[in-house]
Amino acid sequence: MNRFLLVLLAWLGLQAAASAQIDTTGGRYYQPIFPNVTVTSGVVYGSAINFLGATQPLAMDIYQPTGDTVSRRPVIIFAHQGGFVTGSRTDAYMVDVCTRLARLGYVTASIDYRLLFFPFDTVNIAKASIRGMQDMRAAVRFFRQDAATARTYRAHPRYIVVGGSSAGGFCALQVGYLDRDAEVPAYVGLASLGGIEGQSGNPGYSSAVLAVLNLSGATESTSYIEPGNPPLCSVHGTADNVVPYLKGRVGSSLPPKYVVGSGLLNPRATAVGVPNTLRTLRGAGHIPFESTSANGLAYADTTFRTIRDFLRPLLRQPGTVLSAANATNIKGQTANAYPVPASTDIRLSVPGGVVFRPQEMEMLDATGRVVRRFRWEEANQLLLREGLKAGTYLLRGEQLPPVRLLFE
Questions:
Q1: Which CATH number belongs to the domain containing residue 375 in this structure?
Q2: Is residue 79 located within the same domain as residue 220?
Q3: Measuring CA to CA, which of 84, 276, 382, 401 is 20 to 30 A from 250?
Q4: Is position 365 within any domain?
């Protein structure tokens, strides 16, 4: 009886978490219902070793709707453009997009991340993109840590989105879709950089995200996007000669490095069942939405509306799946399960940098009854729905905290 009560209480807690979705009524997250925004500048979210071997503090500016009283709010973290060489969190476009989205009710943040690389070659620009990804993951963890402790920013830990422009788009795409060491080219030397999660700060919290905003960015391969990955929103010009809309070379003075842009990433997302939106800017060049010309301001409006309309429906759904807030057990193993809710199958995975240990698993229904037993053999494994009815289930293993599953 005691065991049943514990399982039931855990299930009820998870049900409460599932129902605690974001309230989008009253025009919130669609209309600029807040006339003013409060900016907290220079918030240090971590530190990391830069390419010179020195420890670099990492800072962000956080934008909040002035006068907002909601207790848990979605967060959008942005990274600026600049080819991993230049740019900052105070770039004009970052200030504008963070301000506009905060007026809708979001908490937004513009981060600085580690820049520069030398020699100027393919290997080192790839390393720079990994460092940027690691720093952005630390920013995600920062808000989850704050949500679990001081709650200074009243962030909802299951509704954290990452986005970026150009180089920042590379960072955001890798945070959302690069989840296995084997996906990183060997020449990068991922282990020496600290693995996928990195060591930029706030360990012990998940860097999983609700969605990815890719603004004129690209990544190494379409295969990064897999079934169950977070939704993708891309905005990209078809005449972009810096970061290809389809597939091409980046770094004009570097040895050839080929990447794939939005024109291939979003069709890949569609093919594997990942919800996505692609706003194609016909005939537009690189990051046209950052220009202050009349056309540039029009592109900025289009980009803003695309982001707004993409994100708002996601807020009315259960958020990012975290295993007990991605808690770790004494052996340090964690787990993620997605999507939630699922209509067919669910992808089980462990975060990058975590040592996977095969183990026996049990799935319990809402009454505490074991409805399935199976062995989790691989770090990224598909759990077939088969005959399972709609509802909430609790997945538990020998070395894992409970994980909530939801079939619709």
A1: 2.60.40
A2: yes
A3: 276
A4: yes
- For 384, the domain range is 2-10+321-407
Chain centroid, CA 355 distance in Å: 21
Task: Please choose, from the candidates 18, 12, 4, 16, the residue with its C-alpha nearest in 3D space to the C-alpha of residue 342.
Answer: 18
Residues contacting 305, CB < 8 A, separation 6+: none
CA distance 289 to 297: 6
Same domain, 336 and 278: no
Checking if the pLDDT of 118 tops 80, the result is no
Let me know whether 400 and 294 are in one domain.
no
Nearest to 180 by CA among 226, 139, 122, 219: 226
> Is the residue at 300 inside a domain?
yes
Binned at pLDDT 50, 70 and 90, residue 9 comes out as very low
Q: Which residue has the tokens 């855990």?
A: 10
Closest CA relative to residue 64, chosen from 136, 158, 152: 152
Q: Do both 327 and 309 map to the same domain?
A: no
Contact in structure between 171 and 146 (CB atoms under 8 Å): no
The alpha carbon of 120 is separated from its chain's Cα centroid by a whole number of angstroms, namely 28
Residues for the chain: how many in total? 408
Positive or negative, the Cα torsion across 22, 23, 28, 30? positive
Please report whether residue 60 resides in a domain: yes
* Burial bucket for residue 275 (CB in 10 Å: 0-12, 13-18, 19+): middle
Q: Higher confidence at residue 89 or residue 335?
A: 89
Q: What's at 221, amino acid-wise? A: S
Cβ atoms 141, 353 nearer than 8 A: no
pTM comes to 0.77
- Supply angle C-alpha 101, 287, 110, rounded to 5: 40
> What pLDDT, in 10s, does the model give residues 195-246?
999 999 998 888 999 999 999 999 999 999 988 889 999 999 999 999 999 9
The closest of 212, 215, 210 to 280, measured between CA atoms, is 215
Asked whether residue 16 is domain-assigned, the answer is no
Dump pLDDT digits (tens) for 304-348: 999 999 999 999 887 886 643 333 332 445 677 777 678 888 888
**Distances in whole angstroms, Cα of residue 166 to Cα of each of 195, 213, 353, 407:** 23, 11, 26, 36
